[in-house]
User: Which sequence fits this backbone?
């Protein structure tokens, strides 16, 4: 019956639908024009940001070509002669540069792996505090070091660990025949480097875990306690499983940052005696690249660092996706 | 529910462990304050730990008269205040367009910006760009290459995107333009994220170190971090300061340790002054950042 009626009125229908289509087309056009008009102020707003990203992010990426050149100030980035892979060959042949790459990897791995459990532990302990005011006080104090610059922390470390006048050596005076050169012994230097990283970021990194802990259902603790689980068993069987996805995700993301050894952290602690373990890519780029004007060689090193970093981040994200927690 | 005996012990031990952790976080600061105000003899004998022994402020007097630290303090304030204003303006102006669904190229621009987190030209190519723009020895070399932190920008974009679309629809019907919508509706609603990012940018500029080291050659334009770092590292400079008292006839009551401690405190104190007020903001800010982008 419906078909009959349609066929009967087909002439009217086509006319109507044509009008409707025309109207739709006009509306689409109007919408497009409206969108275009709304876009003009947005584009104007976007100009400074766009310029910034082009000038200070993408142009330097282009500047990486000097890794394959023999850069000199006179010819500039574009006209300096090409040398192919020569800079990379130099890097991977010299024992000194190989040592620096090794140091970068060792220090950052230690940072990531040794430092990783501390924020989790701190978050769990904080979560078990029953007095709110006490919890808030502790939180205020442990977040504080995050805001100190490495220069300040370097100052603290020299005050504490200096060989002659350091507070620790003064305290150990009775036990040690000679003051221990904490900052001039490779082993203790690495320990201080890793320890100061933990000290600075432990509290602030705990914030994310504290947020994850609030999502655990309190009734789980109640039933665990009714079943006779003591506090440690509750932490083991309720708390840890409750934040395990966050832990896995953050661990994967931390692995993506393995090639990043911050300049300031190493630079303020470094000294000539321990340079064998304490010289890393960023400090090498500053000292030999900028101060020694070895632009091409150190850019090649920086490019190597960036590429390894990119591969690590991409594979970390691919792994995180498996847990359905990828960042993109 | 009453705590059992075991639980009671658990809470006590937990509180003690946390108190010790808190003490570990504070001790270096307390120790530095104590040394900065202590008598030379007490410092050299290693008797200073938690509180000043023999009240003495001469370390600060020598620091203020013998080093350009007041100028460096002023430089740090200038770098921080102007830097925060520029960075916040640029961050808002970048984050707002890409938070709007109608913006052409939104996806492309977002991806292009996120990519710069993962891959960058690095120190030397950036240095060459700054140099070729003629920014050497100017504070613009500190502000411009660090204008927008992509991470902060994404936090802000996510915040903008989470403003309910009903507000947007309603303001459109009332004839609100894009710009008026940003200024009158989006920004007033975004005060928490604005406060957080202002704090983050502020701390970054106050602590800025490597850019000053490589772009600023004029020592009179150094900021606090670089000046104090030079002081800490150079025993000669400190010894000169200590000896300058001798030549003028009176031995100043200072040792290198107390000068270093005083220098560190000049950087820390402004931060300690604002820290308690800002704490509630940054905790929120970190939560915002953890929201998937």
Assistant:
């Amino acid at each position: 019956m419906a078909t009959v009626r349609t066929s009967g009125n087909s002439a009217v229908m086509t006319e109507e639908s044509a009008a409707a289509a025309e109207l739709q087309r006009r509306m689409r056009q109007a919408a497009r024009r409206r969108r275009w008009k709304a876009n003009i102020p947005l584009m104007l707003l976007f100009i400074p940001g766009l310029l910034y990203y082009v000038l200070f992010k993408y142009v330097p990426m282009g500047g990486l070509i000097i890794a394959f050149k023999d850069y000199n100030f006179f010819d500039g980035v574009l006209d300096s002669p090409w040398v192919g892979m020569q800079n990379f060959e130099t890097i991977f042949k010299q024992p000194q540069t190989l040592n620096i790459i090794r140091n970068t990897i060792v220090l950052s791995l230690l940072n990531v792996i040794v430092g990783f459990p501390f924020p989790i532990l701190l978050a769990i302990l904080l979560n078990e505090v029953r007095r709110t005011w006490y919890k808030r006080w502790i939180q205020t104090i442990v977040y504080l070091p995050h805001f100190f610059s490495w220069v300040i922390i370097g100052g603290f470390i020299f005050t504490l660990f200096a060989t002659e006048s350091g507070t620790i050596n003064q305290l150990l005076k009775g036990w040690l025949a000679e003051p221990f050169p904490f900052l001039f012994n490779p082993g203790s230097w690495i320990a201080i480097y890793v320890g100061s990283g933990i000290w600075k970021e432990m509290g602030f990194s705990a914030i994310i875990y504290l947020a994850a802990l609030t999502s655990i259902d309190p009734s789980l603790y109640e039933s665990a306690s009714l079943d006779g689980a003591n506090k440690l068993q509750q932490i083991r069987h309720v708390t840890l499983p409750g934040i395990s996805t966050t832990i896995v995700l953050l661990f994967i993301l931390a692995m993506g940052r393995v090639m990043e050894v911050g300049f300031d952290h190493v630079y303020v602690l470094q000294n000539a005696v321990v340079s064998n373990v304490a010289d890393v890519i960023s400090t090498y780029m500053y000292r030999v690249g900028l101060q020694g004007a070895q632009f091409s060689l150190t850019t090649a090193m920086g490019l190597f660092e960036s590429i390894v970093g990119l591969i690590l981040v991409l594979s970390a994200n691919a792994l995180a996706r498996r847990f359905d927690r990828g960042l993109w | 529910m009453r705590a059992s005996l075991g639980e009671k012990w658990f809470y006590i031990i937990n509180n003690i462990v946390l108190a010790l952790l808190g003490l570990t976080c504070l001790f270096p600061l307390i120790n530095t304050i104590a040394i900065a105000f202590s008598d030379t003899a007490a410092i050299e004998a290693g008797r200073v730990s938690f509180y000043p022994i023999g009240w003495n402020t001469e370390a600060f007097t020598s620091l203020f008269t013998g080093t350009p630290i007041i100028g460096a303090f002023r430089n740090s304030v200038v770098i921080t205040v102007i830097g925060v204003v520029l960075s916040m303006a640029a961050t808002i102006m970048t984050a707002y367009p890409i938070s709007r669904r109608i913006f052409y190229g939104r996806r492309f621009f977002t991806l292009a910006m996120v990519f710069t987190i993962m891959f960058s030209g690095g120190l030397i190519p950036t240095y060459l760009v700054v140099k070729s723009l003629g920014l050497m020895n100017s504070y613009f070399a500190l502000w411009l290459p660090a204008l927008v932190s992509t991470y902060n920008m994404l936090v802000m974009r996510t915040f903008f995107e989470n403003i309910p679309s009903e507000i947007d629809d309603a303001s459109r019907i009332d004839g609100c333009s894009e710009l008026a919508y940003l200024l009158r509706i989006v920004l007033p609603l975004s005060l928490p994220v604005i406060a957080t990012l202002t704090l983050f940018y502020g701390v970054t500029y106050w602590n800025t170190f490597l850019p000053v080291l490589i772009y600023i050659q004029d020592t009179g334009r150094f900021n606090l971090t670089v000046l104090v770092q030079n002081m800490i590292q150079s025993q000669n400079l400190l010894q000169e300061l200590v000896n300058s008292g001798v030549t003028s006839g009176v031995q100043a009551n200072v040792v290198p340790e107390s000068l270093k401690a005083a220098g560190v405190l000049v950087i820390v104190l402004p931060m300690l002054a604002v820290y308690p007020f800002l704490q509630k903001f940054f905790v929120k800010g970190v939560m915002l950042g953890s929201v998937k982008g």
Q: What stands out?
A: Residues 256-290 of chain B form the longest helix (35 residues).
